[in-house]
Amino acid sequence: MSGTSLDGVDAVLWSPNSGVTAHRFEAFDPALQSQLLRLNQSGPDELHQAALAANAVARAYAQVLRTLLEEAGARPQDVSAAGAHGQTVRHRPELGFTVQLLNAALLAELTGVDIVADLRSRDVAAGGQGAPLVPAFHRAVFGRPDADIAVLNIGGMANLSLLPAQGPTGGFDTGPGNVLLDTWHRHHQGPAFDAGGCWAATGRVLPDLLARWQSEPFFSLPPPRSTGRDLFDWTWLQQQVLRSFSPADVQATLAELTAWSIADALNRAQPATNELIVCGGGAFNLDLLHRLQRHLPQLQVVTSDRRGLPPMQVEATAFAWLAARFTAREPGNLVCVTGAQGPRILGALYPA
Ligand SMILES: Nc1ncnc2c1ncn2[C@@H]1O[C@H](COP(=O)(O)OP(=O)(O)OP(=O)(O)O)[C@@H](O)[C@H]1O
Ligand SMILES: CC(=O)N[C@H]1[C@@H]2OC[C@@H](O2)[C@@H](O)[C@@H]1O[C@H](C)C(=O)O
Predict the structure, then answer these.
(1) Whose C-alpha lies nearest to ligand 1, atom 12?
(2) Where does ATP bind (predicted)?
(3) Which of 14, 166, 212, 214 has the fewest CB atoms in 10 Å of its CB?
């Protein structure tokens, strides 16, 4: 799995009986990271650049997979299938497409493992959003019969899964997760992210700027809804004139916008939530978690390691689980989440 933060590739070795037995993360090469970031916007010679990037992503995935297996003492033939998400560079379900760059044939060639890729397209073909896909997995791992649970993934984008004790699973994207925080931080502080949210914590929330950002129409859309860098990116940030503000105050305001958009969406969708389980890299942004808890004083906010799965392993495990669903020829999407015409088997097989 590599997500919209564009930080790199997370891989896990997982089985239904043993759970996660190995995890490996490798950062993208900075040149590839820049190339993928450029491909999120229209640019020169896109087809050529996208084809080269898809090969580079396959090689990055192959490297992580080979290292994961070596460290686990496993062989390619021990793996029934690898769920390979690829790198989202465009997500336009309203136009009938979503693009995750990955040369899956090359990945199969380099690893000798059956690859299940292109996991979103069939849901989009059935009229769905193609995202989020993890709510079904979250229900399987974190759902409880005696409590209304919500699971929040804070990746580049943020998405909620609604797991009522009784009733259907829900889910949707809430908007920006780390993406705006990373983007503003990189512009002012350099390549890494705002570790712990410490920089945001030194700033002061700017009420007028926050109100202007809160008026973004996406935040008022009813589910099913999903988003990406197609909307929340540097251009979106620059809609407001920022040069007169302290950069730390803008970072604090972006953190507040992110926390507000998540809490507002949860309060509208599942106001009786007992516990919010947080995963994804944003689970390490303590400033963001504190802001979130202040918006949601009535419920307990915990990170997913306290519920059996470390925050950085949840997404990759979800795509291993989706590969298992494909192998069993069982549907991977939830119609009540994506709005697709019906349940669909997600993915395409590239045999070893
Ligand atoms: N210690 C930390 N403090 C603050 N933020 C962190 C920390 N560690 C990771 N992050 C944030 O998490 C991001 C990476 O998270 P993650 O890997 O879940 O993103 P992702 O895979 O792109 O997710 P998605 O696919 O859901 O968009 C980093 O870019 C950074 O913003
Ligand atoms: C198109 C795409 O890659 N969407 C991602 C993104 O990152 C978070 C959020 O937006 C979520 O909808 C989705 O990934 C998660 C894993 C999902 O499909 O559930």
Answers:
(1) 281
(2) 3-10
(3) 166
